[in-house]
Amino acid sequence: MARRSGRRGFPPMVALLMGGAILTIVALSKASQTMGAASIPIWLAAIGGAVFLLRGPLGEALLHSVANADVDQSPATVDPGVLQELDDLRAQVGELQERMDFTERLLAREREMRPLGTGEPK
């Protein structure tokens, strides 16, 4: 099985089924408002159809999709050369940080050693 991408959220099939279920419930409630008690057989048919669909292959696929949504099927392998290059870059960034700290200390020392002026414009 292919590895899932880094996306989060519902699998597309789950989202589609949830949207369809919500639309069906809204439509059935509107039918109940207009038809009254005559809508009871329609509700029973809709519930029976949903049970029939979810107990078959569609339900099994949905269950499998939800159960394996966050499981990574194959572990990611990283090239050792990439890891070595990452370590080298980290060392270089550390050296640059030390040089920048040293430079900031030198500049701060120069500012401290300068005599303050009288504050009068020249």
Keywords, separated by commas or semicolons:
single chain; 122 residues; mainly alpha; 2 domains; 0% strand; disordered N terminus
Count structural domains: 2
Helix content: 55-70%
How many DSSP H or I helices?
4
Quick check: average pLDDT? 81
Q: What is the 3D form?
A: elongated
- Tell me the total number of β-strands: 0
Give the strand content. under 5%
User: Distance between termini?
Assistant: 78 Å
Structural class based on helices, strands and sheet pairing: mainly alpha
CA radius of gyration: 33 Å
Give me the strand/helix succession: HHHH
Biggest sheet architecture: none
For this structure, the quaternary state is single chain
Parts with pLDDT < 50 across at least 5 consecutive residues:
1-5
Structure description:
The protein has helices at 12-35, 40-54, 57-67, 80-113. It has 122 residues and is mostly helical. It contains four helices and no strands. The protein starts with 11 loop residues before the first helix and ends in a 9-residue tail after the last helix.
